[in-house]
Specification:
single chain, about 475 residues, alpha/beta, Rossmann fold, seven-stranded mixed β-sheet, two-stranded antiparallel ribbon, 11 strands, about 50% helix
Length: about 475
């Protein structure tokens, strides 16, 4: 029996080699066999089991498949460069366990995090004689790549995502050319930024089917918590845009800027969260206090984004908000310990500023002009900027910033203050001072709805591999 199998394997290899210049390995397990394994997130905060079966790719990509959705998320979360302190299995381990040919795995820019980089991993295998190419885009642990998230451009698809998508498309084409693959099924997945890039990549492939020799049934795109980046609302059924409606990231960029997801939305089941709107008490040192108004967090986010984009056009965001995005990118690009030091530094500075205005009525009068215009507003903004810089100088920055970086940070303060004052002034005038203070109060909770472990728990709720009883699973086996 073994001899016959060996002979068949040799013949199969010869046939494949005659068709492909460099063959990808055939699947090593029957298509009706479920492969189980574990994966780990880049910060080691999530280690979970996955269930993979080649049968996922024997049905149309345009149909919903909860099990493939879960497996796609596992792959997306595991897409990070494995470091010495990584405790679990990353994407290379997952691909090997699920039967992809490890000799053809192509990793691009997974070991770098520049403002223009995009990390991706491509691998392939055969399922019943037809090639499947897996394309996973890094969506976590990308540090300086955050800058591309803020590169909206002024027209067309969001620039930071579209440029990365073009890179990915060229990588897929190059991979197919390198291994002489034509007509492969494509499995593309990504989380957050990686999801936005995957979304645009799926759109391009749907619009250029002849280039890839496939049909819409062969394009399996799964995005998770992806920002909007597409100028055309195409609603492709083979692009599955999975998101939580309390996560603010999938609501950006806003539809009012003419930007959408390219695929079909699939809403995750989360319990709606009620919040109490806040207002800002300047006389209380910029303290926050409750109002009598309540609404759901999702409703608040929708209203907030609508209000913000009423005030900030795509053109204004692209040109004027660089000082703010530079500060955010700098923090995110820092090592974990330095991120904590920067957070501690800013917390100490803001507390000091709050105490300054809480204890001085004269100081409050000096910034009252921010509600005005002309020279009165300018002098108030200057006083507010000078006060902030003074409190920054009084606070030890040595653990958070080098002297050179600190000098750059101080230089951006006047521009940041002016942008913040304009928004604050609009908030006070238009909405009785609720949007900005409410967001500031609930920001840490909003972030929770974008964390991979929370999204993972929501996704597996609908997957029978996780919800079936032990008896059901035993009987199915």
């Amino acid at each position: 029996m073994f001899k016959h199998k060996l002979t068949a394997a040799v013949i199969g290899t010869v046939i494949c080699t005659s068709i492909f210049t460099y063959s990808v390995a055939d699947v090593t397990t029957p298509t009706n066999t479920t492969v189980t394994g574990t994966f780990t997130s880049c910060d080691n905060s999530l280690t979970a089991d996955y269930n993979y079966n080649d049968n996922y790719f024997l049905i149309s990509a345009q149909e919903q498949n909860e099990s493939l959705r879960t497996m796609s998320l596992a792959l997306a979360i595991s897409a990070y460069e494995k470091k010495p302190d990584s405790k679990g299995n990353n994407i290379n381990d997952v691909l090997e366990k699920t039967g992809f040919d490890t000799s053809t795995v192509q990793s691009d820019e997974m070991d770098v995090t520049r403002t223009d980089s995009v990390g991706s991993v491509i691998a392939s295998k055969f399922i019943k004689g037809k090639p499947l190419i897996s394309v996973t885009v890094r969506g976590t642990d990308y540090k300086a790549e955050w800058a591309s998230n803020f590169n909206s451009g002024t027209q067309g698809d969001a620039k930071g995502f579209s440029e990365s998508s073009q890179k990915l498309i060229e990588r897929i084409k190059s991979y197919e050319q390198r291994y002489s693959i034509k007509g492969a099924k494509l499995w593309i997945t990504g989380y957050s930024r990686g999801g936005g890039i995957s979304d645009l990549t799926g759109k391009y492939i749907n619009e250029h089917l002849d280039e890839f020799g496939i049909s819409p049934d062969d394009i399996y795109v799964y995005t998770f918590e992806a920002p909007r980046a597409c100028t055309v609302q195409t609603n492709y059924k083979n692009i599955h845009n999975i998101c939580c409606d309390m996560d603010v990231i999938p609501k950006l960029y806003p539809q009012s800027w003419g930007l959408y997801h390219a695929g079909t939305p699939e809403k995750l089941d989360f319990e709606p969260k009620q919040i109490t709107l806040k207002e800002l008490s300047i006389s209380d040192g910029f303290g926050l206090k409750d109002t009598d108004e309540k609404m759901t967090l999702c409703e608040f986010e929708d209203k907030l984004i609508s209000w913000l984009t009423d005030k900030i056009s795509r053109e204004k965001f692209d040109s004027d908000f660089k000082p703010i995005t530079d500060i955010i990118v700098d923090i995110i690009s820092s090592p974990a310990q330095q991120q904590r030091e920067k957070a501690n530094y800013f917390r100490a500075v803001l507390n000091s500023v709050g105490d300054h205005f809480k204890n001085s009525k004269l100081a409050l009068l000096r910034i009252a002009g921010i509600l005005g215009s002309g020279s009165l507003k300018k002098s108030s903004i200057k006083y507010l900027s000078d006060t902030l810089i003074s409190k920054m100088d009084d606070t030890d920055h040595s653990k958070a910033y080098s002297d050179e970086k600190y000098k750059q940070l101080k230089g951006s303060v006047p521009d940041v203050i002016e942008l913040a004052v304009d928004l604050l002034k609009s908030d006070m005038k238009d909405n009785d001072l609720k949007y900005i203070p409410t967001f500031a109060s609930y920001a840490s909770q909003i972030v929770q709805y974008h964390i991979t472990s929370n999204i993972w728990q929501a996704v597996i709720k609908t997957d029978s591999n996780y919800t079936a009883s032990a008896a059901d699973l035993s009987e199915a086996a």
